[in-house]
Fold:
Amino acid sequence: METVAVVIATFGPDKDVWDDYAKRALVSIENQTRKPDEIIRIHGKNLHESRNAAAEQSKSDWIVFCDADDSLESHYVASMLAGQGDVRYPSVQMFVKGVIGEPRLLNTGSLLEGNYIVIGAMIRRKDFLRLGGFHDLPFSEDHEFWIRCWIDGLNMQPCKDAIYQMYVRDGSRNDVPSEEYARFYQKMKI
Structure:
């Protein structure tokens, strides 16, 4: 039986604030119908270093990253394990300023045109480590990583029944103005 670790990584000086946010994520992970084999809660100086350290620490076959202020629907782990592909990406249910969206797969066009694979995607730990994990970027380190996975030839498949619940807070990394994203992607070399 394949094993899976769910990682909640945070960073910066406000560990207590992140611990409060992480309570919702932890409850959603602990209430999975198929329990993860590992739950790794880690806090460090930088987000990419925290996530990479958790992957190094894990002993599981698969890794799922969950942002501390997000959550996983109760069948998430089971649905992901039943899916196909080297990278399995979920449907996303957005929670924005009190409005709850319907779960849906994000646009599945070219990764070069935008990121439709959220941080909650599941990847084989050995592939994550082989590709060098996340890089130190101001935002979109997951998008840059998924592009490296695609360039490497990993099979990336949707897992519609796995629902990642994304909470967009004012000032969060998910609330970056689109023009800032555009400037960032113009500078990124692929």
The CA atoms of residues 27 and 185 lie 35 Å apart.
